[in-house]
Class I SAM-dependent methyltransferase (Janibacter alittae), 371 residues
Amino acid sequence: MSIHWSEDGVERSAPWHSENGMPPPVRVVVVDDTIRADAAYRLARKGTGLLWRGDYHNARQLLKAMDRRVQKAAARSRGAGTDFAAHRAERAERSRVLGMLVVELAADHSLRLRRAPDVRGACRLAYGDPPGPVCVALQELLGVIGAHQWWTKGVPVPALGASVHPGYGVFSPVRGEYVDLVADAPLPKTAPTVFDVGTGTGVLAAVLARRGAGRVVATDISHRAVVAARETMTGLGLDGTVDVIETDLFPPGRADLVVCNPPWLPGEPTSTLEVGIYDPDSDMLRRFLGGLGAHLEPGGEGWLVLSDVAVHLGLRTPEELLTLIADAGLRVAGRVDTTPRHSRATDPADSLHAARRAEVTSLWRLVPART
């Protein structure tokens, strides 16, 4: 896909890149510091792309001003409250409108705007080697820059006494309560072999390796996650204990303990960045439960780490998870609960505050029903 525009009387074009699959704007105008926020917002709402040629910091200010107008419009149409479907629709509209403010990256991934930072390293980490000039939404580029900062400084994990460094597009373990559940739950009597299914950054695999597992196999279907997990193991000196494999769900064989922290919300992700949050029709959850028994050694356990926020949002009934467990030929041998510590759980301005405040994250200890 390409983006097309006219500039200085010349018709131009460049490849279009969007991590969330947003199509390029059909109509594009070149803008700079002289455009007013109201005018930019009106054009963006109508689907007109705004190719920025002004000052980088002014572009960021314009994006914030457009965002305020999006939020005001959403609040007016929302009324007294909102359900999750309305929340998702608002997020999609926000992404669409803000995605209309576009910048052009040069052939070396540099951003040639006044006062622009050096974004080459961040873009190379997210996109790989540059194929040539490319246009991206400024909103996406800011996410790429932010992810590079997280990758550089790391995310502290108290259970490890160290930091992990998630790359772009890899779910970051900023919510430490689910990590603490795995760090504190009693291990099966014998757990020489552990599978961590859907490992992400590898944080749970690393925690279990540090707890004394003889061998850990961590899997993920995402190549970016596999790269991040391998870097985590190298940084923690766990290369010889943890194998990271790129595969869908289970590795070959059986384990004494199989751990999975699947996406918590049933629903369609709108981008690759949301794959760690949304699980269409609870597909990963269903397949994990359905295949767990066949991958457990006799006397082994499966640990399912899952938030009940989907219940509070009306996306899953309280009984549905128990039914899925039973239908998979499993039973609950124990359960450990914790409550969230993240800031949104105590923010009444958050549109999903009630659900976040009531949320409980649980570690479900599962064993074959026949045992």
User: Anything to note?
Assistant: DSSP finds twelve helices and 17 strands in the chain. Residues 56-78 form the longest helix (23 residues). The first strand starts at residue 2 and ends at 7. The mean pLDDT is 90.
